Amino acid sequence: METVVLDPTGGAVLEEAARLRATGPVARVALPGGVEAWTVTDVALLRPMLVDPRISKDSHQHWTALADGTITPQWPLYTWVTSKSMFNSYGGEHRRLRRSVAGAFTARRTREMRPAVEVATASTLDRLAAAGADGAVVDLRELFAYPIPIEVICDLIGVPGDVRGDMRRCADTLMDTSVTAAEALANQIELGKLIASMVQAKREQPGEDLTSTVAEALTDEEAVSTVRLMLIAGHETTVNLLASATRLLLTHPHVLAAVRAGEVTWSAVVDETLRVAPPVMYIPLRFAVEDLELGGQQIRKGDPIIAAFGAPGRDPAVHQQPAVFDPARADRTHLAFGGGAHHCPGEPLARLEAEVALPALFERFPGLRLVEPDGDHGQVPGFVANGPSRLPARLS
User: Fold this and answer.
1) Which domains are present in the chain?
2) 3-state SS class at 42
3) What is the pLDDT of residue 224?
4) Cis before 285 (ω within 30)
5) Nearest partner of 233 among 127, 104, 124, judged by Cα
6) Among the four 38, 83, 178, 286, which has the fewest Cβ within 10 Å?
7) CA distances (Å), origin 158, targets 155, 167, 213
8) Taking the CA of residue 221 as centre, how many other CA atoms within 13 Å lie in the half-sphere pointing to its CB?
């Protein structure tokens, strides 16, 4: 079987996913550092895999190469798979860690956050209007898609204003799978120190925020890893969702017209964006708890598996004209938020942010247009995330 080398820079993640689908529903990939893993691209296999107890996310328990010392802290993705949080846990331990944050993402709590999302959106659009005055070119990713999710998650976590800039820089670097192991480790240490200081402050003076809740329920190491996970996962997906949806609407004026006419809902726009431009492509890593068969391939106990969450949305076996952006289509199946025990708890909040921010943007700036609709808008670095790295535009 051909082993597909994943580009650590993420330069062509959608094309890479198509190549993997062509290889078969279960394929071999090479990760940074030469580590090989299985990947699953077929939604019919992915869904059951995500609830299969024979597959774990706990590298400390179930990754043979970590246990025998083959994988060391010098591996570029080491921090991705070894942090002590619900992201890398299994079974009862996962349930315990997830409970510490579950209350922040209930349907009721999400509804209560709507006013805060509306305030963050309004202030962001005010700053965007000032930056784009007199026809100046603005970057919609930097000035629209990024500020809203990062402000909302920082408020939820309780991040002090004076460290938000440093946390953003560290969070962006953490998502970049092309950095060296040394850079990744240095970044993890810096971000860990920032969060540890915040956790300690919340232990001494708790507030009505997620860090205070986590600090009370978990150990220091668990609390730092959990807050780091919430910071990263709580904004990165939504930033890419907002940026991709904005680009798609501005490059498909007939769809935007249908939305404005009430013929297509904003909820449908969000789901179709998640399908055709998934904000997350791959999530490292899962591990076989025992020998098993998957899609005709024999997976050995301890083998690493990387779920290709971005692949099903553009699968021609699932969708007609899968590359076409059409929010009116009947089937908008995707796995943008994962599934099973590790399903993203922040999905309702991400949807709320998108369904508040997108209509507000296009209502505030009816003449909004990209400077180069057919131009290269770049790609966020790394193969984990997917989205344009820049969106130069004029507001009118």
Assistant:
1) 3-371+381-394 (1.10.630.10)
2) coil
3) 95
4) yes
5) 104
6) 178
7) 5, 12, 11
8) 3
